Amino acid sequence: MNVRFDPATRLRGTITPPADKSISHRAALLGAMAAEPVRIHRYLHAADTHSTLAAMRALGALVEVQGEDVTIRGTGLREAAPVEGPIDVGNAGTLMRLLPGWLAGQDGRSYTLDGDASIRRRPIDRIATPLRAMGATIEATRGAVPPFTVHGTRLQGTEYVLPVASAQVKSCVLLAGLTAAGSTTVREPAPSRDHTERMLLAAGVPVTRAGDAITVASQDELAFDAITVPGDLSSAAFLIAAGLLVPGSRLLLEGVNTNWTRTGFVRIAERMGAIVLGALEQPGAELSPGEPAGDLDVAAGPLVGTVVEAGEVPLAIDELPLVALLGCFAEGETVVRGAGELRVKESDRIATVVEGLRGLGADIEATGDGFAVQGGGGLRGGALHAHGDHRLAMLGAVAGLASREGVEVVGMEAADVSYPGFAADVAALV
Ligand code: S3P
Fold first, then answer.
1. Ligand 1: which residue has its CA nearest to atom 16?
2. What pTM does this model have?
3. Which of 166, 172, 257 to mutate to test the pocket of ligand 1 (most atoms within 8 A of CB)?
4. Which residues of 135-174 are buried (b: 16+ CB within 10 A; e: fewer)?
5. Is the CB of 184 under 6 A from ligand 1?
6. The predicted structure's pLDDT at residue 225
7. Structural domain range at position 114
């Protein structure tokens, strides 16, 4: 589906961005691992998180959808049902990387995971290595990618040092740690999103964080009250960028997750001169159960270039395409370094962002682990191909609103993976 986004004169209004994708995936998964029913308030109803509900059903959980809410009656930690044929993760990298942490502890049962064409290009050795160290057997296509099979066993706890900061890999190992004998520690080279740790704390698991080390121990069961999912900062970020770039704009975004491990993009934008008012959690805040949420008030204004270094990357990983877009409109140079992980997202986001924005008139170069933008010229407009990547599709839309001639997004339906109401929300603001 091709959709045109014309230049906008000013954006005004109030939007409640969709529920958080990362937190919804985790709520469904931990709900299925729990012994008692869990009610999830404001689950994300989008393609990715529906893949997770389908997978949990296949594994024996009862899933009931009541409007925006979902109730899950789980199987317990060690009683996932056997599944005939592959579990389809669709386009969901988070499901593909977290679920094996649970499955690896299902003694004597084997599970195969597969997904769409993008999933079949995404590496799984990063989870296979620690799960093998804990005792599981993993067989992957060409030793590296889906479809892959996890043979569950009685796991042993481990201490695993992540070679690259990744919340997905950290979460996978922590979930495996719940069924493994003894304790399991993950060390991360830089902080990454901590939703799994917070949700486990809320489920009564004594998770500790000391410096770069996160530790869990073997559990009998998880016990939740209800889980409430806040708005997704990564989805809100597209509207924040639109509000910053379209002259005269003023937007209010309600109920957004303000967890400090997710708000790196707001701090980068503020360094570029952006005005975003709202009570964000302080960076480095102590680990606590639950997720903070708040309202963000965004106003357009002039921006200057900035440099994003490796340590900041995990806290803004999914928003780095938007940093490139802001860079096109900012005075001077904007550089992102240490972001080689972008190459293994839903698309190679260094290649697709650079090619996409260059086609709209940007002065942008790819580097091995990021990109450099010479800003100030704004964007002419043209066509941008989403390459089946939801964040590329929404990037093209925001670029169109801020451009001189508008942008035709080729493959706009990709946005349904995380933000099915995106085009309608944009239309409401124009
Ligand atoms: C996610 C972690 C990040 C992020 C992805 C969601 C998560 O991936 O890019 O969209 O929910 O844990 P990595 O762990 O590969 O950095």
1. 166
2. 0.98
3. 166
4. bbebebeeeeebbbbbbbbebebbebebebbbbbbbbbbb
5. no
6. 87
7. 21-228
> Hey, is 424 helix, strand or coil?
helix
Q: Answer yes or no: are the C-beta atoms of 380 and 416 closer than 8 Å.
A: no
CATH number at residue 159: 3.65.10.10
- Residue 415 main-chain phi, psi, to 5 deg: -60, -20
Residues 204 and 240 in one domain: no
What is the CA(166)–ligand 1 centre distance, in A? 6
- The answer, yes or no, to whether any atom of ligand 1 lies below 6 A from the CB of 49, is no
Helix (H) / strand (E) element for 328: namely helix 320-329
Mean pLDDT by 10 residues, the chain (430 residues): 97 98 98 97 98 98 98 98 97 98 98 97 97 98 97 98 97 98 98 98 97 98 95 98 98 98 98 96 94 98 97 98 98 98 97 98 98 97 98 98 98 98 97
Co-location of 256 and 350 in the same domain:
yes
Q: Tell which of 194, 228, 262 closes a domain.
A: 228
Q: What is the pLDDT of residue 380?
A: 98
Residues 188 and 59 both lie in one domain: yes
